[in-house]
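Why does residue order matter? Because the sequence determines the fold. Keep that principle in mind as you read this record.
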Amino acid sequence: MERGQSLRKQMDILIELKTAFKQQRAKGGASAQDSKEEASISCTFSSEEDSVKDKTELEQLQERDELEKNDEVAYTEVPISGELVKPMRMKSEDIGKQLRSVSSRSFSCQGKNLKINIPLTTPSRTFSAISYLVWEDLVNQSSKKCTSEGMSKLHINKTKLHHADKMIRGAFVELYKGLGYLKTYRNLNMLAFIKILKKFDKATEKQVLPIYLKVVESSYFNSSDKVMNQADEVEELFTKHFAEEDRRKAMKYLKPHHRKESHSVTFFIGLFTGCFIALFAGYVIMAHITGLYRRQPNSIYMETAYPILSMFSLLFLHFFLYGCNIFAWRKARINYSFIFELSPTKELKYRDVFFICTTSMTVVVGVMFLHLFLLTKGYSYTQVQAIPGLLLLMFLLLLVCPFNIIYKSSRCRLLRVIRNIILSPLYKVVMLDFFMADQLCSQVPMLRNLEYVACYYITGSYKTQDYGYCMRATHYRDLAYAVSFLPYYWRAMQCARRWFDEGQTSHLVNLGKYVSAMLAAGTKVAYEKEKSVGWLCLVVVMSTFATVYQLYWDFVKDWGLLQMNSKNPLLRNELMLRRKIIYYFSMGLNLVLRLAWLQTVLHSSFGHVDYRVTGLFLAALEVIRRGLWNFYRLENEHLNNAGKFRAVKTVPLPFHEVDEED
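Structure:
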C-alpha cells in the first residue's frame, strides 16, 4: 500500500512536469518566429552540487522501451506545485557510495526540495558520473557562488523526463503484478483452509466447516478490499497516462498473456531431428571412406571447412543444453523467466529452442554433406570452398535481419546482451548479462574458430587455398590469442561494475577468479609458443590454482552448496530436487570436467584421429559442464529470491526529496 501511495505522488510530480513542459514549449513555438530562441520554464532551486546516489538496480522494462538515443532537445526550467508530498527522503552520502545514479540539481518550490535520479544503466550516464568526479571541485565552487547570490535556475531536459516516465511506468507494472500475487495468495489460503476443514469433517464426522468458515470469511484478511481498489486505481492511472485511454493496450502491459505453444513446433522438431540424423550418418560414412579425419600433415579440409562445422556444433550443442535447462527449470518450478527478466509474451520455450537447434543443424550438416560430396566428385577446393563461408554468412545475416521473422524479439535481445557484454563495464550488469558472459567463457574454442574462419574468408585466402596465412601473419595470430582472453576480461569488467554499483567486496573476489583464469590462459599460450619445462611447470601451477578457485566458487557461491551446518551433508538446507545423489554426482562431474586442461600437459589423443577432433571433443565436454552449471546456478538464485520474498522487480523511483542542509 505504501508503494502505491508513493507511486501516486511520483505520478503527480511527473504530470506537473509534463504539463509545464508542454505549455512552455507551445509558448516558445509561438515566439520562435521573432526571437528564434528555445523556450524555458523558470523555477528557483537551492544551489547545490550535482549528487549521485546509491539506489537499487533498475530492471529493464518492455523490450520496445529500450534505451533511446539522446537526441538534442531543448532544456527547460520547470515549476512544481507545492501541494506534492515527499515520496522519499535522501540523505547525503560519501563519495564512495555516490557514483551509482545521476541526479539533477535539487529544485525548491514552496519549501520542497526535489531531485531527479536516473540510475547509471548506459554509457552516457556512466560518463556523466565520471565527469562529475572530475569536475567536482569546480562544481562545488560554482555552487558556493550560487549560494551567495541566492537563487538560480534549474534545467530539466526532455530526455530525463522520458526516463522518469519509463521508471514510473515500470514501477506501476511491477506494483500491479505484486497486487495480483497478493490476491492469488489470499484466494489460495482460503481454498486450502476450506479443503482442510472438509477433510477434517469427513474424518471426524463433524460439521465444523460452517462455523470456522464464517469467522474466517469475516476476517480482515479475507474481507478487505484494499488490494482490489489499489489494482483498479493502478489500471485507471496506467490507462490514462501510459496507454492513451486505451484499456486494451494498458492490459497488454499490466497483464500480458503467455504465448500459446503450438503442436506444429513439436512435429517439425521430430521431422528435422530425423533429417539431421540421416544427413549426419551420411556425412560420417563419407568422411570415414575418404579418411578426412585421420592424422595427415597437410589437410586442406581440416584446416578450412572443419572449423566451421566445429563452430556450429559447439554453438548449437550449447543451445540444445539451454533448451534442456529450460525444461528442467520448469519441471523443478524454478522461475527462470523472472530471474532473466524475460517477457512472458516473447520468451523462448524449450520447444522453440529445440526447433531452432534441429533446424539449424539440419541445414549445417546438409550443406557440409553437399560440400564433401562435391569434393568426392572431383571438384577442386577452389570451386567449392566458398560454400562453407556462404553458410556462415547466411546465419550472420539471419541474426541481424530487421524483419519480424524467425523470433525477432529474441534475436534483438541477444544482440543487446552481446552489446552490453562487449561494452562492459559501461552498461549496468543484470542477471542475463553476466549469465551470458559466463556462457562465452565456455565457448573460447568456438570464438577462436570464428576468428580464424573470418580471417580466412575476409583476406581472400579461400581463393588461393593459402590457409596458413592467418597463422603466419603476426597481427592475426595475436588477435587469436586475444580472443582467448576476451570472455574472461568481459566477465571481470562486469564484476568490477557490479562492485561499483553495489559496493559488495564479494564481486572483487569473483573478479579475482577471472583474473586467475586469464593468467592460466596466458601461461598456456606461452607454453604453446615455447615448449619448455619451466613453462610447463608454470602452466600446472597456475591452472591448478585457477581450477581450485573456480571449483570453490562453483560449489559455494554459484550453487550454494558445501554448507557446514546443513541438514543435508555437504549440500544446503533447501533442495529443489528430491534425490540428493544427483547433487553429489553433479559435483563430482563438475570436478572431473574442470580438469580438462590436463590435456594440455598429457597431449592425449584418440588413436589415429586428427588432433582437431580431439579438441572438439574436449570443447564439447566444457559446454556440457556449463549446461550442468546453469541448472544449479539458477536453482540457487531462485532459492535466494524465495528466501528474501522477491516475486517482483524493484524499480527505483526518479523523484526524491532532499533535506535543505544536504
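Strands lie at 44-46, 75-76, 89-90, 101-103, 107-109, 112-119, 151-153, 156-157, 655-658.
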